Amino acid sequence: MKKIEVIIESVYIKRLLKVFKKHKIGGYTVIKDVEGYGGHGFQTADDVSDVLSNILVFSVCKKELLENMQKDLKKFLETYGGKCIVSDATLL
Hints:
The protein is α+β, with helices and mostly antiparallel strands.
């Protein structure tokens, strides 16, 4: 199993979830108002409009599903920005 964690600007969530759906990743969790420091400086979680806030989307899937999705996920990140972290996972 693989855990996929994607941090993106909240305005792009529907586009990211289309990529997940295309590759049959139906289970995921969305955490709103993620803040931290990165290549674009400090991103706060208290944006009034919610347009510029960041979110974290994570899911766990079979390795084969991730391999099929990687090309589309990379294209998404190149187009809209964000970070994706993939790690091994065990479901109990």
